[in-house]
């Protein structure tokens, strides 16, 4: 594989200036320049660092009310269910994935289908949280996505024909795949889903052109990493934070994928719950579960980690995206930092180079498991009375009421960051749960929780709230409440706008400074996916996938009952300004 040095890539990216769109094969330079190139959306996150910020301003606070549908594309079939996909766009084509591991290529201007790929799924797949897929990666002439039976498939962008296909892991052991892959320096980087089945979380890096494995890095302490077929050092130190054999089925799934910052040359991956949920079976911090883990893509080694929830007992998966940005410190110096709205209800700001905790503040109103995050030690101050009780050998442990619920202050719905306002836009949810522990032992391919639960709303009038936060002060600048829990990501633009969707079916545009609603459109089914924007032939477009589903209807308990009137669907909507 041809490797280029980081400085060459960064120089190319910086020199890329306002390249509208490059045709032909997708290169490393184009991927690193994606946040600036307005004619394409080459990456999940609209840039590898996941800011979801468009430099386009043709659609802006002054004219967004004139936004109208350009076309809509229906996924069709009987396979509706949750549609959590972010489209990627290149060379006049939109590539969008759908439920049940499907992919479509559509003409970006007209909405005409170019091809469809239906992955053949075996009986017995075990996705925990609906049959979703969050999107594809582009590289060379390929469009690459992962499937519910834990395979990685690379298709020809022009024909939809399979170029290569590789098995990520055994679906019968509980592995699946739902995230959008990340491409860094010719490597396609993927995680795994399956934290509810006692799998072992990791990142894999493959040659994006061939699918051949280059490195693998487990994120459960004690497991061996590999580079080019050779041992590449154990992650951490065996038994340092896990007792006995518990690390062998330690979970820590990497189900929401990763981000990459060319300035630090680090891949950031969030890790899920330690397995099982019953924390009394595994005293210790259980590294590197519920953490942000920074990995050097050249070496496949961990450079730093920061654990958001040590010894998690609430399924507070720390998979949430780590979004890097420039933050000015009190001394006037700019720090490369990363923001993460964690499932545990706290927003964390870490130094992106070193992992040092710079700030942490709650982004939801009710947090019961910890009173605060201590900025000196970097650790939560636990409220021990609010940890679900130890069940002992054969009985149920003490039930506690915990907030957030295990579906999180934030779940898969992505945050956005605007360098214009300096604010993070967080689709948050206010809910709690009754949770208790039960005895559990590991059995391959079976749910490995040792816990029971029921999710409950906290307030009569709303669960969701889109909130704007200043990462430096932790100040909530504005919020817009939503009756149903928010499950779709946010996007912000140079035009001073924030776009996001609701389960009630609306795509909305707000003023990024004030939160004032300026535009809304009913898409016909719930929106649980992030919008994107690009330009073609001088016009700016907005696209979002619509189709209610995901984890809430399946796991939401009393909340699921409250929103059981919402209808499923499956469509890609594209908007532009009326002429
Ligand atoms: Ca771009
Ligand atoms: Ca989990």
What layout of secondary structure does this protein have?
Layout: H1 6-15, H2 28-32, E1 53-54, E2 67-74, E3 88-90, E4 93-98, E5 102-107, E6 113-118, E7 137-139, E8 142-146, E9 151-156, E10 162-167, E11 182-184, E12 187-190, E13 202-207, E14 213-218, E15 224-227, E16 230-234, E17 258-261, E18 266-270, E19 291-296, E20 301-307, E21 323-328, E22 334-341, E23 346-351, E24 357-362, E25 370-373, E26 380-382, E27 400-402, E28 416-418, E29 423-429, E30 431-437, E31 451-457, E32 464-469, E33 476-482, E34 490-493, E35 497-501, E36 506-511, E37 517-522, E38 532-536, E39 539-546, H3 551-555, H4 557-562, E40 571-577
The protein binds calcium ion (2 copies).
The site of one calcium ion has 5 residues, from loops.
Structural features, described:
By secondary structure, the protein is mainly β. Helices cover 4% and strands 37% of the residues. The protein has a single domain, classed as Quinoprotein alcohol dehydrogenase-like superfamily (Methanol Dehydrogenase, Chain A). The chain has four helices and 40 strands. 59% of the residues are buried. Mean pLDDT is 95; it is low at 12-18.
């Amino acid at each position: 594989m041809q490797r280029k040095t980081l400085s060459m890539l960064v120089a190319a990216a910086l020199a890329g200036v306002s390249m509208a769109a490059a045709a032909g094969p997708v290169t490393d330079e184009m991927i690193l320049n994606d946040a600036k190139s307005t004619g394409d959306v080459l990456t999940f996150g609209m840039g590898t660092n996941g800011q979801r910020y468009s430099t386009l301003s043709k659609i802006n606070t002054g004219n967004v009310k004139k936004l109208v549908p350009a076309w809509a594309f229906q996924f069709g079939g009987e396979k509706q269910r949750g549609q959590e996909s972010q489209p990627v766009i290149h060379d006049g084509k939109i590539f969008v994935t759908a439920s049940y591991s499907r992919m479509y290529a559509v003409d970006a201007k007209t909405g005409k289908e170019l091809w469809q790929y239906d992955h053949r799924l075996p009986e017995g797949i075990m996705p925990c949280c609906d049959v979703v897929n969050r999107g594809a990666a582009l590289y060379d002439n390929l469009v690459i996505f992962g499937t519910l039976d834990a395979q990685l498939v690379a298709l020809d962008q022009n024909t939809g024909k399979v170029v290569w296909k590789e098995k990520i892991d055994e679906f019968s052991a509980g592995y699946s795949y739902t995230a959008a892959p990340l491409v860094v320096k010719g490597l396609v980087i993927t995680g795994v889903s399956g934290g509810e089945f006692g799998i072992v979380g990791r990142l894999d890096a493959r040659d994006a052109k061939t699918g051949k494995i280059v490195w693998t890095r487990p994120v459960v302490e004690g497991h061996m990493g590999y580079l080019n077929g050779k041992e590449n050092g154990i992650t951490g130190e065996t038994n340092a934070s896990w007792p006995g054999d518990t690390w062998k089925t330690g979970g820590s799934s990497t189900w929401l994928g990763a981000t990459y910052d060319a300035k630090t040359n680090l891949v950031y991956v969030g890790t899920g719950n330690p397995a099982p949920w019953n924390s009394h079976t595994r005293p210790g911090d259980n590294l590197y579960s519920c953490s942000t883990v920074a990995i050097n893509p050249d070496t496949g080694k961990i450079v730093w980690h920061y654990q958001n929830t040590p010894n998690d007992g609430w399924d507070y998966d720390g998979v949430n995206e780590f979004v890097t940005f420039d933050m000015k410190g009190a001394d006037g110096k700019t720090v490369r930092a990363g923001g993460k709205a964690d499932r545990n209800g706290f927003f964390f700001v870490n130094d992106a180079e070193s992992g040092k905790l710079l700030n942490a503040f709650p982004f939801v109103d009710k947090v019961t498991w910890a009173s605060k995050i201590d900025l000196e030690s970097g650790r939560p101050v636990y409220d021990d009375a609010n940890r679900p009780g130890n069940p002992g050998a054969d009985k149920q442990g003490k039930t506690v009421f915990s907030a957030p619920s295990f579906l999180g202050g934030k779940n898969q719905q992505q945050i956005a960051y605007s360098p214009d306002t300096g604010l993070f836009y967080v689709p948050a949810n206010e809910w709690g749960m009754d949770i208790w522990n039960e005895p559990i032992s590991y059995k391959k391919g079976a749910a490995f929780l040792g816990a029971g639960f029921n999710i409950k709303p906290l307030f009569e009038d709303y669960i969701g709230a889109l909130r704007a936060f200043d990462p430096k002060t932790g100040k909530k600048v504005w919020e817009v409440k939503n009756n149903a829990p928010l499950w779709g990501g946010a996007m912000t633009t140079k035009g001073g706008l924030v776009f996001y969707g609701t389960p009630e079916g609306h795509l909305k545009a707000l003023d990024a400074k004030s939160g004032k609603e300026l535009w809304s459109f009913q898409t016909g089914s719930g929106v649980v996916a992030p919008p994107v924007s690009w330009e073609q032939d001088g016009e700016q477009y907005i696209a979002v996938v619509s189709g209610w589903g995901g984890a809430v209807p399946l796991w939401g308990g009393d909340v699921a009952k409250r929103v059981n009137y919402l209808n499923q669907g499956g469509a890609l909507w594209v908007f532009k300004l009326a002429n």
